[in-house]
Amino acid sequence: MRIIAGEEVQKTYKGVIEFELRDRAGRLIRRWCEPNIVKIFAKEILSHRMFHSKVWDPNGGTGSGAWVASDVDPTGEFAAKYILLGASFDADGVPLDTNDPRFYTMDPITNKPVPVRLDVGADNDGGLINPIPLSDPFRPLKKIENIGFEASYQPSSVPLLQDDVRAMNNIVLLETTVRTDEYNGFVSGSSGSATSSPGSDYFTITEVALAAGIEIDFLPRCEITPEELFLQGVGGVLAGNAIPATATGTDTITLDSDPSVIKEGDQIKIVEAGGSAGEGSSGELGQVSPFYLVIAKQPSGSDVQLDRVPVNSSNVPLTGSVGVFRSTLRLFSHRILSTPVRKSNDVELLIRWRVIYA
């Protein structure tokens, strides 16, 4: 925040999410907008996107200076590439609509369901509350299919601008379409189904998220969540086996192999030794949250200092052999929809995500 001429100027990143629901013939059924809520992770992503992929070396080239690689790729895993979807359903795959306390609560004044207030961690390790499991090998998750920019008009007398009205290309538009054969519930045999278990032929989509991460093309069939899909294990392989490590009972763990995969500033997940990306809570050693931030690590070293001591739910520090994954999924924004959207093979859903860089 800056104070200019006695005024408070808050730097914000906001916008709207626009949805269009269309039938199989492409006819518009409904169009509506939801406010865009930007998570704290947006600051991390933007900090990795604002600089050039090179730095100026005064002694480079022939000695007169040259641009050289900065060792950080701002167009890599920190660029928004995906729009993730979550839904309201029970253990049998039956949609719950607004009768799901994870997403909705009853307003005592209007007596209508309203979205719950999101905290910094949501309910699923900082990701979606209830992500739709992924199983389609050709479309493991929705990718951004169109990127563009739009102009907004800044009024006169706005601090830091000239005293006239002018247009600025400060709105980025990210768009994707959930087609008729995608995300259609838990019915056995449907093209967009997420499991072979019977349940329903539609999902009630309740949440959307704008996400950054490593670029993924096609993957083998993987009935896991997006958070698990983006975990890097041995050799840097996505959704593979955990990197073997040793917990010391302090805020430092030691990697027993693959020391170059984990870097300072990464978020890691600690699981049981020999664990895999899709095991879930049974392999998380009883931790309240298995995710930690790496605050210090030498590039070629094996010791990793974390933001806190890894402990189980009884507050007993972890010791001995464990497994480690590097998390490469970062949510830019996360929104619970005011009203769930019923997605079946009779409709397609177009999602336009506008972020205003104010």
Question: Could you estimate the helical fraction of the residues in percent?
Answer: under 10%
Question: Which oligomerization state do the chains in this entry correspond to?
Answer: single chain
How much strand content do the residues show?
35-45%
Distance between the termini: 13 Å
Low-confidence blocks of residues: 1-11, 189-196
Order of helices and strands: EEEEHEEEEEEEEHEEEEEEEEE
| Radius of gyration, in angstroms, nearest whole number | 23 Å
Secondary-structure-based class equals mainly beta
Number of folding domains?
2
> Strand sequence of the main sheet, in spatial order?
14-15-18-17-16-19
Largest sheet at a glance?
6 strands, antiparallel, barrel
Overall spatial form:
globular
Tally of helical runs: 2
Mean pLDDT over the full residue set: 80
Number of strands: 21
Write a concise keyword list for the protein shown above.
single chain, 358 residues, mainly beta, Elongation Factor Tu (Ef-tu), domain 3, six-stranded antiparallel β-barrel, five-stranded antiparallel beta sheet, 4% helix, 39% strand, globular
Describe this structure in words.
- The protein has 2 domains: 10-49 and 72-222 and 329-358, no CATH class; 231-327, Elongation Factor Tu (Ef-tu), domain 3.
- It has helices spanning 41-49, 226-229; strands at 2-4, 7-9, 13-23, 28-35, 54-57, 66-69, 80-87, 104-106, 113-115, 146-154, 166-178, 203-212, 231-232, 243-248, 252-255, 267-272, 291-296, 303-306, 319-327, 330-343, 347-357.
- It has 2 helices and 21 strands.
- The protein starts with a strand and ends with a strand.
- The protein is globular, with a radius of gyration of 23 Å.
- Mean pLDDT is 80; it is low at 1-11 and 189-196.
- Strand 5 (54-57) and strand 6 form a beta hairpin.
- With 358 residues, it is mainly beta.
- A 6-stranded antiparallel barrel has the order 14-15-18-17-16-19.
